[in-house]
Amino acid sequence: MPKYVPEPFKIKVVEPLKMTTRAERERYLREAHYNLFSLRSDFVYIDMLSDSGSGAMSDSQWAGMMKGDESYAGSRGYYRLVDAVRDIFGYRYVQPVHQGRAAEKILYPCLLKEGQYSIANMHFDTTRGHVALCNATPKDMVVPVAKDTENYAPFKGNMDIPALRAFIESVGAEKVGVIIMTITNNTAGGQPVSMQNIRETAQVAREYDIPLVIDAARFAENAYFIKTREPGYADKSIIEITREAFSYATAFTMSAKKDGIVNIGGLIGIKDDEELFTQVQGMTVPYEGFITYGGLAGRDLEALAIGLYEGIELDYLRYRIGQVEYLGELLRQAGVPIQYPVGGHAIFVDAKKMLPHIPYYHFPGQALAIELYLEAGIRGCDVGSFMLDLDPVTGEQPESEMEFTRLCLPRRVYTQAHLDVVAEALINIQERAEQIKGYEIVWQPQVLRHFTAKLRPLE
Predict the structure, then answer these.
(1) What residue ranges in 69-228 does DSSP mark as E strands?
(2) pTM over 0.85, yes/no
(3) Which of 42, 56, 87, 320 is the most exposed, fewest CB within 10 Å of its CB?
(4) Which domain holds residue 396?
């Protein structure tokens, strides 16, 4: 039996959850057109759709919110946040925004021109969407071992350096607008990136004079994996590891709704490029609001300044990642196929292995996520072919290299008993996996379709 890491906190406030019947869940799914993003949260028992903005804030954060300065310009919270970012990341320039995709919307048009490429260890959905909105092309270059979900490798999120260099040589450096390092690598299963790989990627970026941008949504979890898995870092603190990792990049975007442990907020950090920061500020004012609030209330700025420090506490990270490891071991012991080792924020069930009879164009990751909701009221999401928009040139459905059902763990929210319920539900589904059918799309938007698309089950 796997060991559960005890919480380094006690529960002060509780939120009641609704228990539903299977008949009710069947109706709710039909009304949501089989898109789990369209379900009302009131109809969900354990919500693992995302770890973005779904965590529980601390008493210190709530106290900070009560002290929030709501001045339109120059609020105290802004300056506290700037000081925190400079301390933790070592970057001179800081721009708050309302969430991560706002950071992408503002920064990437400053770096990408029409017809260029964006290269990443793997782009996540919103990043891929914003690259496409710049009329640029995203290219994923994760190491091949990431696609081997069964066998252990400590840093499956790494960039494939030989492939990166070969691609730049083949198209020309002038055709590559940005290199993105996503830490941890969400699309690959929340897999971490080693410091050595960040350093080597930065070396390639410098050689070809291409900006290196870090997607920093889960920077603290990645730093924890470096500390516990990479030689030479066991005695380094999380903040020391963070400062080194970010020293190799030009800039970062961050959904602070993850490792900032807040319900809303994002960041753009720029190391020392004043010209780029001026461009970012110019984009912020029309899109997000004045530069010292960036689409956030003063109380949100206060909560984020506090949350960034709470997110790098070692005891918290040991518990946080320990929860994911506990659930992962329960599933592995029962033979449920998952991306192994587990990442820092979620379990990624290998739907391609669990449902081999469902082809990619009938979305096995989405089919498993729907079945899990029907089984126990648990909401997850597809990270596979359903998440990929149609090819803009051919109109064809791309095939994802990995077909995952992602089950995110909101920070400081669920207990060991909740995780036991999730494991039991998946084990029950595996016993009748061959009976599960796929889905087809009946309506979809052009970009980021999986958020709002409508589906129907195949007969």
Answers:
(1) 93-97, 117-120, 137-140, 176-182, 212-215
(2) yes
(3) 42
(4) 22-51+313-457
